[in-house]
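In the previous chapter we treated chains in isolation. Here, by contrast, the input contains two separate entities that must be folded as one system, with a combined length of 256 residues.
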Amino acid sequence: MGQTNPPFMSGVPELLVLRLLAREEMYGYELVKSVRLVTGEAIALGEGVIYPVLHALEKAGALKARRKPINGRTRVYYTLTGKGQKRLERLTEEWGRISGGIESALGEPEHV
Amino acid sequence: MYEPNLRSLKRTLIRGGVAPVFVTRTLEELGDHYEDLEDEALRAGSSREEAGTDARGRLGQPSAIAAEVLRRPELKTWTFRWPWVRVVLHRFAVLLALSTAPAMAVVGRGASITRWCVSTGLAVLLTGSLLLLMQHMISVGLPA
């Protein structure tokens, strides 16, 4: 099992959740599997911590939850709202700026 | 089984002031997630015991999940988010109870209070009359 990421990555699960739910509605287990898949397992969430992220986003109005019976079990599916879409755009922009800054710092030749 | 972990998580969340709706949702969804992970491991050829161990490991320690929930104030009840409101309301309720307690004691006991007023009034009247009679007898003197 891969090691989970340290606390400084705390904004990343939110960004990934919003990005994945912008494509299609999913439930928690599916989401965690998708995160592993789309990040090439570079980002491994402690799977149980996905729910506080989802609930907080739902409370903020960024996600909408609905119960759906699948194979005799009731799943809670999450979908992105208009507010969530705006939040995703803002976070994507912020993350682009941060990763651009880090890339530029790493690409800088070392001073002697 | 993931039940013992869910029970300890429930206690921690409730004590931490998490809103009941989110406590229930967290436990339900974690329970489902555990079953999915267990099924996945069983499909991959693990024994029931191995599947359970693997599922618990992947889901994470209840303390870690609880910490993640508890660090989000938006998932807590308003009394935990704004404790000063709770203190103010509590004091207001105490003051209100103290100031209205005598009135509340009277409400609904009209008949008893009327009886008490009438009997006290009659007692005052009788005692006053006896005192007046005694004073008159002292000042006028007892008949021979």
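The mean pLDDT of chain A is 86. Residues 3 and 44 of chain A are 7 Å apart (CA to CA). Compare these points with the single-chain example from earlier in the chapter.
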